[in-house]
Design goal:
Layout: H1 3-12, H2 32-49, E1 63-68, H3 74-85, E2 89-94, H4 106-115, E3 118-125, H5 130-135, E4 141-147, H6 153-167, E5 174-178, H7 185-196, E6 200-204, H8 212-216, E7 225-227, H9 231-234, E8 240-243, H10 259-266, H11 270-273, E9 281-283, H12 296-299, H13 306-325
Parallel strand pairs: 1-2, 1-3, 3-4, 5-6, 5-8, 6-7, 8-9
Helix pairs in contact: 1-2, 2-13, 3-13, 6-7, 6-13
Bound molecules: phosphoric acid mono(formamide)ester (CP).
The site of phosphoric acid mono(formamide)ester has 9 residues, from helix 3.
Amino acid sequence: MTRQNQGLSESVSSQLDTWNRSNVLDLDDFSRSEVETVFEVTDTMQEVLSERTPRIPDLQSQTVVNLFYEPSTRTRTSFERAAKIMSADTINVSGSGSSVEKGESLIDTVRTLESMGTRVIVMRHRQAGAPYLASRHVQTSIINGGDGAHAHPTQALIDLYTIRNKLGAIEGLKVVIVGDILHSRVARSNIWGLVCMGAKVTLCAPLTLLHNDFLLAYKEVEGHLNVEPELDLALEDADVIMTLRLQEERQKQGLLPSIREYIKYYQINSERLRKAKPHALLLHPGPVMEGIEISTDVSRSTNSVIDEQVENGVAIRMALLHLVAGD
Ligand code: CP
């Protein structure tokens, strides 16, 4: 056993007693202790990553497939790097170039991958619910890498972990989520995670990008969730500002008068940043459209933790692979 793996085994063995998930589909049914377990295993994975040649045998002889039906840079590459560091064999399958193009169903695709001995499938799909459907048809672990506008639990865990690392705790923080909430799977998973960890969440968006039905779905978290369409008011005393990409590819006609107007009322720029607490964190899940949702100077300011989010992505994904499939 390597020194790295010995340390890993000692520090995570007790936490695994509280973990009995074989899939990660969303955070809506996560308990606070499960989120904390992910954080603790991630801390251990950060130690592994700080080694000169990070490598642990956790997933030796196991296969991890990245099944991506939509584009991705961060999620796909960080899962691939995480799996490789854990000694897994990794395979990337995309919609184009696979038998999906010949009409093969999602269920047949995941069953085929299972028959080849795949231990974990990380899936991104344009249809909300696709990873849930897949998980009902295979024993292989499914990790949701983003399904339509529904959920992106691994990104939300990265965001929660980044906030906890920078500010020490999440309980009691005011977190403002700004932008295209209507189309954002990142916002949805973050709301569940943030509320679960005791934050107060304010949603700020043009009302056309925040449908009333959205709030009805979150009845259970009333009291922790609040809507303020005026950005200057929403930002007052914020501890964390979470900006979202304006998803032009998912926009239906007529939701916004123009991008220029969106920038005028909803862009986070240096003047707006001053409404928040002086050391407020600025997050963005990426990809960032600099000059639209955030001004360039702000995205590179000391408040920005966008680079840390990307860095934490590998360790969070190692932790999740370990928890669902590790030795
Ligand atoms: N945040 C995120 O999901 O980025 P990618 O689309 O690049 O994976």
